[in-house]
Design a protein that fits this description.
This protein has 12 helices and 11 strands. By secondary structure, the protein is of the alpha/beta class. It has a single domain (2-276), classed as Alpha-Beta Barrel (TIM Barrel). The strands form 2 sheets. It has a 9-stranded parallel β-sheet with strand order 5-4-3-2-1-9-8-7-6, sandwiched between helices. Strands 10-11 form a two-stranded antiparallel sheet. Helix 8 (158-167) links the parallel strand 6 and strand 7 (172-175). The longest helix is centred in the last third of the chain and has 16 residues, at 243-258.
């Protein structure tokens, strides 16, 4: 299953799209249609989140979606039932995102094994330290054929980042800002400089998220990372214009990544800017 993630990045140069979906939002049926529609519209990888009452890494948009899904009665059991229902029909790999409390409540190894059985290729658990003493998620995930995708932000020390990179086998998720998720109009320079810092330390595929909301953001990140992650903006689009707007946006993004470019973004003295190339 972890090999499916390697396959995602096997085609060089083209920027990949990872989309975030909250299971059970706004209801189970719609979220299933959402997931399948994203796969058909050009997503290369889909991150499916288990609803949680206190999603610390999530901003107001995804937090509100979590609360609605929970209000509608979505449980980890129903989440895994959803995953089983799409497993055979999916044309792209998917990974699970959750918070440690949910996995600990189920039993961490049981959670990992169920994730593998229901078709996941990897796991994101942003609030579980990579060196957690009570449970080694990396070793357990490897036992069941899954990759752990660490989430790192600009405030991390170089020594800690190096340790995380040494344990990472799939790809690394970089946040474009320190804090919580949520669509923004402008990607800050600090996020771009952090990408460069990480790139100088590893050859692992890099994904970037936390704020991506336009096709211009994809242009800015093209050549700097291997994948972009889009989540909050899709929920905002759904609120304003429905699922068709979400899928049309992903189709436009996919078309954008396929274009041949006479201009590319490169770094000069640590600052992201346009250059001829």
């Amino acid at each position: 299953m972890a090999d499916e993630l390697k396959d995602v990045f096997s085609k060089k140069k083209k920027l990949k799209l990872m989309t975030h979906v909250l299971a059970g939002y706004p209801d189970l049926k719609t979220s299933q249609e959402w997931i399948m529609g994203l796969a058909e519209s050009g997503a290369d990888l889909i991150e499916i989140q288990i609803p949680f009452s206190d999603p610390l890494a999530d901003g107001p948009t995804i937090m509100a979606a979590n609360h609605l899904a929970l209000k509608n009665g979505i449980t980890p059991q129903k989440f895994f039932e959803l995953a089983w229902s799409i497993k055979g029909a999916m044309t792209v790999p998917f990974i699970f995102m959750t918070y440690a409390n949910i996995a600990y409540a189920m039993g961490m190894e049981r959670f990992v094994s169920l994730s593998a059985e229901s078709g996941a290729s990897g796991l994101i658990m942003p609030d579980l330290p990579f060196d957690e003493r009570n449970f080694d998620l990396f070793s357990c995930a490897k036992k069941y054929g899954l990759s752990v995708i660490p989430v790192v932000s600009a405030g991390i020390s170089s020594s800690r980042l190096k340790k995380i990179l040494n344990r990472t086998e799939g790809f690394l998720y970089i946040t474009l800002r320190v804090g919580i998720t949520g669509a923004v109009k402008r990607i800050e320079r600090e996020g771009l400089e952090f990408i460069q810092r990480v790139r100088e330390m590893t050859s692992l595929p890099l994904a970037a998220g936390f704020g991506i909301s336009s096709e211009k953001h994809l242009d800015l990140l093209q050549g700097k990372v291997d994948m972009v992650v889009i989540g909050s903006h899709l929920i905002d689009l759904f609120h304003s214009s429905g699922l068709s707007a979400v899928l049309n946006f992903i189709k436009r993004c996919k078309a954008r990544t396929r274009r041949d470019r006479t201009r590319s973004h490169t770094y000069h003295h640590g600052i992201g800017r346009l250059s001829q190339g």
